[in-house]
User: Fold these one by one.
Assistant:
Number 1:
Amino acid sequence: MTQTDLKGRLALVSGASRGIGRAMALELAKAGAHVIATARTTGGLEELDDEITKAGGSCTLVPLDLMSQDGIEKLGGIITERWEKLDILVANAGALGVLTPAAQVKSKTWHEVIGVNLMAPARMIRAFEPLLLASDAGRAVFISSGAASSRRAFWGPYAASKAGLDALVQSWAHEHVNNQKLRINIVYPGALRTQMRAKAFPGEDPNALSQPSALWPTLAELVSADCTRHGDIVKFEG
């Protein structure tokens, strides 16, 4: 299998209704994977479905709020019953929150940002690890951010949540360092033309940024059955 030949593979993408998640879900489907696309926005998922169908791919849409009490766990059960394995996990969904002084961040913002960016991936690990281990080449990729290390002023919740995500994922990867069938990695996507980027940097010219689809070659390598990288933070520079 080459890094772009994913025929017969099952891939789950969170935050698939727009931005990086949407672009990666479409590329995964084009490469032959059956994509389980999750997001809160049903309309966005339906538009993705249309694009995937037009491209000759296949997908299953799962409207899902990652903050729901047991949605991730129920999805794990559904995948177990229907497919009995998961070949590729792309944990992409993220929440920026509000860029403001740390002393002014409200508890609701902390709850949302930590919940989506850290707690949801932690629950995915618990729900999907058995399914990834059931694959002959399980691949898990978590979309993080350079904010985890840059820790610029006013980015407290987002930076803290992404730093926590990196620690969680690399710790999990270390647990499986001797498992040749499972590969776990982190991606820093850099500056891409997404709604989150526009919200974070409203004065930036979006036309100066690459489209989210530019990330595909990097992701394709990491989800390939031939991938040997494990526990790495892969920085995409655009």
Number 2:
Amino acid sequence: MSILTAVVKFLVALTLCNAMTMKQLRSTGKMMRKSCQPKNNVPDEKVDRISEGVFIEEKEVMCYVACIMKMANAIKNNKLNYEASMKQADLLLPEEIKQPAKDAITACIKVADSYKDICEASFFVTKCIYNHNPAVFFFP
């Protein structure tokens, strides 16, 4: 199955059901990762560490984070979009992490204002979200 087909099926599924389970979220994350990782030429060793709170400040890693956020529809017109991020959190996230994740997004979205580059903005907002509440942080 192609990545595009998988993404389309995923988006259709979103319209038919409520929030995903953590298992579904991880599965979707793997699909997004398979698309974004080769585009940004970033090895597993650097991407795997993000979920542990290790953010390697390299352009490839930063652009990988931006790619994931674009696929999650958190970026509109090459800018992080608070409203879209909150909507996606409501649609996608399991109930047990939904509100804490939305609180973290709210606390961190202004971090993007300090960066002109979308890769840097995405990276540092994501790092802030992790620091805000590492217990509920998920990133593919």
Number 3:
Amino acid sequence: MSFIRTFHGDIEPGKLGFTYSHEHIVCRPPYWVEHEADDLLLDDKEKSKLDVLDFKNLGGQTIVDATAVDYGRDVDAVRQIAEETGVTIVGTAGFNKSFLWNAPIPDGVKNVVGNFSTFHEWIETKTINELADFVVEEIEEGLQGTDVRGGQVKFGTGYNRITPLEEKTLRAVARAYHETKAPMHSHTEAGTMGLEQIELLKSEGVNLEHISFGHMDRNPDPFYHQKMAETGAFLCFDGISKIKYAPESTRIHCILELVKKGYEDQILVSGDTARKSYYKHYDFGLGLENIIGKWVPRFIEEANANGFDGENLVNKFFIDNPARCFMFKK
């Protein structure tokens, strides 16, 4: 039996619809709170909700919220947004990357992880299997002590390196994956260390067809993308709208190169919209409407001009592929 786990229970994969595969909706990352980086605090539920409504009004149906416990998620606020907008939301158990772990653990998180001063102390103190048990609990019982169960498990590594504690959380998440059968998601900093992550995942017996690797477009290297795709994994191009990293032509070129090589069934597209300045209703940014409203028509036009069926590819990237990627396979 296959299903997708959402904020409001399990659904059939065919009901997922048009999906953004990696976003952040309401979050106050403790690291950025400590450093007073206001742009990185999505701390107004009503403003976030307005952007979600923009996405819905253009035909969007589902958002995968990739906010883990160390990134300051607000489960109740996101649940309210799901209820008030009718947009399906998928939550995330697991971890992000190690530099975030130097921040103090908020009181609301200490209730579920224990009375540790920092995430670093917590992760360093616990065994791999104890951390795996925490992730399993968030999938099977609820995120952060709520009754909202996570729909995927996540780990992350840093730029051009994997620290010992990042390897520890990777292995913990891999073991939670085996127990829960939840889909996996990887944060690759600037698109690096994906192949190195894969070697560690193989040592834990992970089926790479059950994982999506984020930020692939931050490393716009078609050879690297091919090597990642050859494993059977999903590749998430989730930097759409972020021209400071690369123009959209670069991202579309990398995507079409994968399509040429036959990997169109392994591509996901999203925006990782995690700053006020990216959101329309916080700070006049392009907002959650930009990909579905402007990028999709541009991609279709460019794909068609290169001899592809652009509309068919969009259906794969936003509907068919997410429905397979985010399935629990019991």
Number 4:
Amino acid sequence: MLRYLLVPASWIYGWVVHLRNYLFDAGLFKSEKFDVPIICVGNITVGGTGKTPMAEMIIGYMAKNHRVALLSRGYGRRTKGYLEVRTDSHYRDVGDEPLQIKLKFPDTVVVVCEKRADGIRRIRQEHPDVDLIVLDDGFQHRYVTPKVNVMMIDATRPPQEDHFLPYGSLRDEVEQLHRAHYFVVTKCPENMTPIDRRLLHKNLLTVAYQKIYFTRMESFSPRPLFPDAAPAGPPARGRRVVALSGIGNPGPFHRSLAESYDVIERVALDDHHVYKVRDMKMLAGLAERYPDAVIVTTEKDAVKLANSNRIPAAVRERLYYLPINISFIEDSETDLLNKLEKDVRGD
């Protein structure tokens, strides 16, 4: 019942978003184009829709033929302005997701800057060899006009059935989806029917050039966060597991673990959670309470926990993370990446 008290705030939020979009659409607020191709990976909801795995997929493919840079706001960082991410950066300075990407692609230029247009200009100035920029979570940042918009949609939370923040999870108008070029529907269920797909086609595709792809989140075997402290190899199938997450939508993470392990407790923290001393005590308490269990966390949380020197030894030897990527249904990954390459080249 208390949640319904958020409805008036949701109306106000929606009105502000609508006014802002109107000012951009009318040309009263200016959007800037650049001489370097920009691929924006975004969504219109809060919570995990798979933007980071998609950005990683694009970087991994495009880096074969391009000098790629990734530009992110660096959500939750304690710094301001333009900052290049290094492999030894602290996540509190650059954000957890940009650091995760830098660790995976150390040769890629990764930059955080809340003013995206300023960030692009600095990248062009300091890295003139960059010929492609991947803009992470920039769909609402309309001061920049990307060449391509890749829109991530959570199949479990269709935007047409959602509401504006704070009552729902929408942070932009559903009507703005006409600016997307490609839709990537993530977290599709195994039993997704052709009717479900046709309904998403009908609701999302409003312009002739738009195309939609259906995907699932694919997880691998848990890997030790501290290999020197943990036994070799992943935990045995069926082992007791404590699930630890600080992400927007932990449901798929929990379900993935439950397919192979006995999940005895779920610790779900806020998205972009900052781990502090009390969290280290909490982890130590879990290790003591469940001496025969391991603790498995997400890849994004692993980046943050790896930076901490306060993790007790009893936790370090039993702390694992679950790598994930996006698995396209019907082998359409190559089709999307080839289309993006043609878009970048201007074919």
